[in-house]
Amino acid sequence: MGKTFSSIIKPDNILKFCDAFYNDAKTVLAQNVCSRISHTDVSTSRNRVQECHHYYTHKIEFEGKPVTNQKKSGRCWIFACLNVIRVPSIKQFNLEEFEFSQAYIFFWDKIKRSNYFLNAIVQTANRGETVIDRTTACLLTKPIDDGGQWDMLVNIITKYGLMPKKNFPEAFSCEASDTLNVILHSKLREFAIILHKLVSNNATDNEMRLKPKSKNKWKLFIELLVFV
């Protein structure tokens, strides 16, 4: 009969491990260092750093000042696009520094996403789906987010244009969007339940447009103006 492997961690084994750890000067030193300093910095080899010489045969001309920073938000797609778009404007008007407003695009993106979500809820309700059916449940899981892509930017810029950053500066909720998204999730789910009940009660399109749907959109618009 073959040997069996025991997966139980016995108390006496833990004591042996601890004794071995604290009787080794190297592991104690490693513990002291890693408890106070970044693990990445500690594990970086100084010899390797000294051997790396950043000399290149081709140098790319620096374009666009100042350096932009999305901070604690998922707006990388907005920053990437606006960083490219601003270069011709900087050259054309001979500007030292210039930025298009990332917050402006961010604001309208939230408005458009909220509208899309509410319309999607109405469509699923019209198909007879309940709030626990897969499509509706998926929509309710995360009604809105920060991330996006090229075609979304094209649609927003084509419809709403661009704004210099000086005319529409950053707000706290743009730079750290987690709290804003939590609030929007809550309100959109609240509005989704209201709309779903109206559809279930056979409300007409006019009743949907004139009362709750437009009212909910107005509330979202006001909230976004407050935060962004």
UniProtKB/TrEMBL annotation:
<dbReference type="GO" id="GO:0004197">
    <property type="term" value="F:cysteine-type endopeptidase activity"/>
</dbReference>
<keyword id="KW-0645">Protease</keyword>
<dbReference type="InterPro" id="IPR004134">
    <property type="entry name" value="Peptidase_C1B"/>
</dbReference>
<dbReference type="GO" id="GO:0043418">
    <property type="term" value="P:homocysteine catabolic process"/>
</dbReference>
<dbReference type="GO" id="GO:0005737">
    <property type="term" value="C:cytoplasm"/>
</dbReference>
<keyword id="KW-0378">Hydrolase</keyword>
<dbReference type="Pfam" id="PF03051">
    <property type="entry name" value="Peptidase_C1_2"/>
</dbReference>
<dbReference type="InterPro" id="IPR038765">
    <property type="entry name" value="Papain-like_cys_pep_sf"/>
</dbReference>
<dbReference type="GO" id="GO:0006508">
    <property type="term" value="P:proteolysis"/>
</dbReference>
<keyword id="KW-0788">Thiol protease</keyword>
<dbReference type="GO" id="GO:0009636">
    <property type="term" value="P:response to toxic substance"/>
</dbReference>
<dbReference type="GO" id="GO:0070005">
    <property type="term" value="F:cysteine-type aminopeptidase activity"/>
</dbReference>
<protein>
    <recommendedName>
        <fullName>Bleomycin hydrolase</fullName>
        <ecNumber>3.4.22.40</ecNumber>
    </recommendedName>
</protein>
<dbReference type="InterPro" id="IPR000169">
    <property type="entry name" value="Pept_cys_AS"/>
</dbReference>
